[in-house]
Specification:
The complex is a heterodimer of chains A (445) and B (148).
Chain A lengths: L25 H8 L8 E2 L2 E2 L1 E2 L10 H14 L9 H20 L7 E4 L2 H16 L17 E5 L8 H10 L2 E5 L12 H4 L4 E7 L11 H10 L3 E5 L11 H4 L3 E5 L10 E5 L1 H6 L10 E4 L4 E3 L13 H17 L1 H20 L4 E3 L10 E6 L4 H10 L2 E2 L1 E3 L4 H6 L5 E5 L6 H17 L5
Parallel strand pairs in A: 3-15, 5-6, 5-7, 7-8, 8-9
Antiparallel strand pairs in A: 1-2, 4-10, 9-10, 11-12, 13-14, 14-17, 16-17
Helix pairs in contact in A: 2-10, 3-10, 4-5, 11-14
Chain B lengths: L2 H5 L2 H9 L13 E9 L4 E10 L2 E10 L2 H14 L4 H15 L9 H4 L12 H21 L1
Antiparallel strand pairs in B: 1-2, 2-3
Classes of the chains: A alpha/beta (445), B alpha+beta (148).
The structure holds pyridoxal-5'-phosphate (PLP).
Chain lengths: 445, 148
């Protein structure tokens, strides 16, 4: 695996991964695993089986090396000062942006760095808010919300793509509406044309449900939003790491995602926005590095993306994330997606065979490698603890999706989520542990 | 004993099933009572707990709750332990239980005093689960204050 490129190289073209139709194979996955030192970890006396990449992914060595190399050779404040290091740091920072932009099919100036997806979504909501308070002049008209306007989300959302819109609605007087799910957790697409109407100004929705792993019909929702002139905001947190994603092909106006879920470091995420929209939007955070002229009374702002990057930026993290997308590109996102689909199917089939285990989520909807389930008679917290004793790391709780859990009639659940480094043996270790849970807790009939 | 068996001692698993005190009870006429609702936002566990007193003596604890085996067993153990105990004595027991829980395993639980509550000593080694064990005990502490 030649993925140990330390510095972002403008290598593969946009969506290079999609040229590979076939999945990764077991031999290749086993080679990839060698790039992830943490996968060697023992949990007690058990080898780690990491099935919690939906929460955060692990880093290949090249990502850590890229960050270290940045600190050893290039560290300086970017976009400030004329000394050599500052210039080099700026080059690396901007090359990282270009690499990440290319990875999602965006223009270089259409990617704004944030700390994570949560901040990206808040940035947007606050930009709308500032526009609604009159900032941004006539250019910001599209972002102005008030009573009578509607914001649409879905019942699938992670809290990060729900609460910022709730709060925006409270601040502006706009109404928040949502597309509900059915009893199995499938989005009620039949109701979407009723929910998205002439008053809708923004439609914010997730590409992939973080709880269920189900993939949303983006094209259908974008078409409905376009029809009524609403802006679209895609939560790409669970799609960008696991599927080939091209923002132009998806035709969304904005997209948020997090670096730590796609083999990158923590502390870095991004907001994609169409160029003309970003440049019309008033800033959220203000201060240094985002201005042109400042007087004691007022300031003029830079064009995007810099107008949204106030203060000293997360440079090493950006460089690390660029190494991560380089790694993913080299493997090929299409092949990653196909491999994970296979692991996901193996988890679903295996869980379906176990008595007292109920796989959550709708049938017949495409999913990434995520299986979320309920164990009859055993609380998810206890399930997670039992699996941990077998070295199997899964997520338990409400996964920051309380409304979706409520809609499915559960307060919490257990979620196993894969990535490109997971093997069929990992899946089987999880299934074997789950098979023993009910016996241990005396929940068998 | 494996880590798992230290955490889930048989006493705990049994109490999680027996759930002594499960089902809120109306206090008898003339008895004082106090109530508290506690919620662990991390896992969604919750409990509504009522303490019923005859003067300064605890007559009964009853509760409605949902949660993991640790939190439900802790509510059950507390209920059993508290019946007939003086109010100040229960406050002392809660303090002791908390001290054990917060000790990361360095403080021994006195079985003579804490009864089945001593089985939770193993939980103290699992910091993520201490809140589960404390849920009902904090509810009882707050309910006692409310009853005062
Ligand atoms: C679908 C989805 N949206 C948003 C987020 C928030 O991501 P972060 O915590 O990195 O900001 C997550 C992460 O859990 C997610 O899965």
């Amino acid at each position: 695996m030649a993925a140990a490129q330390n510095v972002p190289q403008p290598s593969a073209g946009p969506g290079a991964g999609q040229q590979h139709a076939e999945a990764l194979d077991a031999a290749e996955v086993s080679r990839l695993r060698a790039d992830f030192p943490i996968l060697e970890t023992q949990v007690g006396d058990q080898p780690l089986v990491y099935l919690d990449s939906g929460a955060t992914s692990q880093n290949p060595r090249c990502v850590m090396e890229a960050e270290q190399q940045y600190y050893e050779q290039f560290n300086a404040a970017v976009h400030r000062g004329a000394h050599t290091l500052a210039v080099e740091a700026t080059d690396h920072f901007e090359a990282a942006r270009a690499a990440v932009a290319r990875f999602i099919g965006a223009g270089d100036d259409e990617v704004v760095w944030t700390s994570n997806a949560t901040e990206a979504l808040n940035l947007l909501a606050y930009a709308f808010s500032n526009a609604s308070a009159g900032r941004g002049g006539s250019a910001a008209e599209r972002f102005r919300l008030g009573p009578g306007d509607e914001i649409v989300v879905t019942e699938l959302e992670h809290h990060a793509n729900l609460i910022p819109w709730q709060e925006l609605a409270f601040r502006t007087g706009a109404a928040l509406k949502y597309i509900p799910v059915d009893a199995a957790g499938a989005l009620r697409m039949d109701l979407a044309p009723e929910v998205i109407g002439p008053r809708t100004r923004v439609v914010a929705f997730t590409h992939v449900s973080n709880m269920l792993g189900t993939i949303t019909d983006v094209a259908a929702l974008v078409a409905l939003a376009r029809e009524v002139g609403a802006l679209t905001v895609l939560d790409g947190c669970q799609s960008v790491p696991h599927l080939p994603v091209d923002v132009k092909r998806l035709d969304v106006d904005f997209m948020a995602f997090s670096g730590h879920k796609m083999l990158g470091p923590t502390g870095i995420g991004a907001l994609y926005g169409r160029r003309e929209l970003l440049n019309a939007m008033p800033p959220f955070l203000t201060g240094g590095s985002m201005i042109t002229t400042v007087t004691m009374e007022r300031a003029e702002f830079l064009e995007a993306p810099n107008r949204f990057e106030a203060g000293t930026q997360r440079i090493s993290q950006a460089v690390g994330l660029a190494a991560a997308v380089g790694y993913l590109d080299e493997v090929g996102m299409g092949r990653v997606a196909a491999w994970e689909e296979r692991l996901g199917a193996r988890m679903a089939d295996g869980l379906a065979q176990l008595p007292g285990i109920r796989l959550l989520g709708p049938d017949g909807v495409a999913r990434i490698g995520t299986a979320t389930f309920d164990v009859e008679g055993v609380h998810p917290h206890d399930v997670g603890q039992f699996l941990d004793a077998r070295g199997v790391a899964v997520r338990v709780g409400h996964h920051c999706a309380q409304p979706l859990h409520r809609a499915l009639g559960v307060t919490a659940s257990t979620r196993a989520s894969t990535y490109l480094y997971n093997t069929e043996q990992d899946v089987d270790a999880m299934l074997n542990a789950v098979a023993d849970v009910r016996g241990f807790f005396g929940a068998e009939a | 004993m494996s880590g798992l068996e230290q955490l889930y001692q048989q006493i705990i698993l049994d109490h999680a099933k027996r759930r002594v005190g499960d089902g809120l009870q109306e206090p008898a006429p003339g008895h004082a009572s106090g109530e508290s609702h506690q919620h662990n936002p991390i896992c969604g566990d919750q409990i509504q707990l009522r303490v019923e007193l005859d003067g300064t003596r605890i007559v009964r604890i009853s509760w409605d709750g949902t949660g993991c085996s640790i939190s439900m067993a802790a509510a059950s153990v507390l209920t059993e332990l508290a019946e007939g105990v003086e109010r100040d004595e229960l406050i002392g027991l809660i303090d002791q239980f908390r001290e054990v829980m917060r000790s990361r395993g360095s403080v021994e639980a006195d079985e003579e005093v804490l009864g089945d509550g001593a089985a939770f000593a193993g939980v103290a080694k699992f910091p993520a689960r201490v809140k589960c064990a404390m849920l009902a005990w904090v509810a009882a502490e707050t309910a006692l204050l409310a009853a005062a």
